[in-house]
Amino acid sequence: MQNQRNCYENVWILSGTSDGPVIAKRLLELNYSVFASVLTYRAGQSYMKNSKLHIITGKLRDKEEIINFIKKNQIKCVVDATHSFAVMISKNLNDACKEINTPLLVFERKVPLNNSSNFNYIHDLKDINKRDLENKNILLAIGSRFLNDTADYYINCKANVFARVLPTYESITKAFGSCIKNSNIAILEPSKSGEGILEKKLCDFWGIDYVLCRESGSYSQKNWESIISGSKMKLFLVKRPKLKKDYSYYFYQYENLIDHIISRY
Known about the structure:
It contains 9 helices and 12 strands. It is of the alpha/beta class. Helix content is 32%, strand content 22%. It has a 6-stranded parallel beta sheet with strand order 3-2-1-4-5-12, with helices on both faces. Strands 6-11-10-7-8-9 form a 6-stranded parallel beta sheet, sandwiched between helices. The chain folds into 2 domains: 4-110 and 242-264, NAD(P)-binding Rossmann-like Domain (Rossmann fold), CATH 3.40.50.720; 119-238, 3-Layer(aba) Sandwich (Rossmann fold). It is elongated. The chain has helices spanning 20-29, 41-44, 63-72, 87-99, 147-156, 169-176, 197-206, 219-228, 254-264; strands at residues 10-15, 33-38, 53-57, 75-81, 104-107, 119-122, 137-141, 160-165, 185-187, 210-214, 234-238, 249-251.
C-alpha cells in the first residue's frame, strides 16, 4: 500500500502504445501524477483519461531538453519504456538523468526466442542472404525511418519489395516518397488480438515469401510470428540492440517496476 508521503509524486514515462498505458494506469490508480511522452497525438489516445495524467506529444531533441523538462516538472523518476530500437532517445535519457542525479528505470519486455524452422534471427536490416532474394516477394514491416534505404537495397538484390506502414502522417509520407511502388504499399494498424487476420490476407494477396521485421516484442511482431508459424513463408527478425550496462535499473515485469517505484519514490 502506498503511503501518504509518496502520493502525488511526479513520474515521467516515455513509451509507445503497448507498455506506457499499462504502466501509467497502475501509477494513476496509486495516486501518482504521471507525465507521458508520446510521438503522435494518436498515440496519446491510447492512455486513459485522468486529471493527474499529462500527455506530452512530439520528439525530444536532446539531453538539455530532457534536463529542462525534469527540472521544470519536478520529476522524481523517469521510466524509459521506449521502442527497443530507439537507441538515441535512450542514450539521451541516460545521460540527462545521470547529469542531474534523477533515477532512470528501464523497462523492456522479455521476448523468448522462437525455434520454428522458418524463423530467422539477423543482426541488421540488410542481412538476408542476397542469393536467396532474386524474384522473391519480401514484405518490409520495419517502420518508416529506414524504409527507403532498406527497400532500395533489396530492390537492387532483385527482390520484389512490398511494405506495411502505420497510419501516421510521417509513415505514410515516407512510404509514398520511397522507392517502393505505390501499389506495393499497405497502410495498416497492427491488430492487438494477436491473430493478424488482415496481415495474413495481405501476405496471401501479394504472394509474400519473406517478411522482415524487428524483434521488438510488439503486437506487430507477435502477429507476424503467428501468421508465419506453420506456413511456407519465412520470417526474418532483426535482433534488438543489447541494453547497456551503465543504465540505472532494469525491469522486465510491470509488477517489479511498479513495486520499485512505490518503495522508492
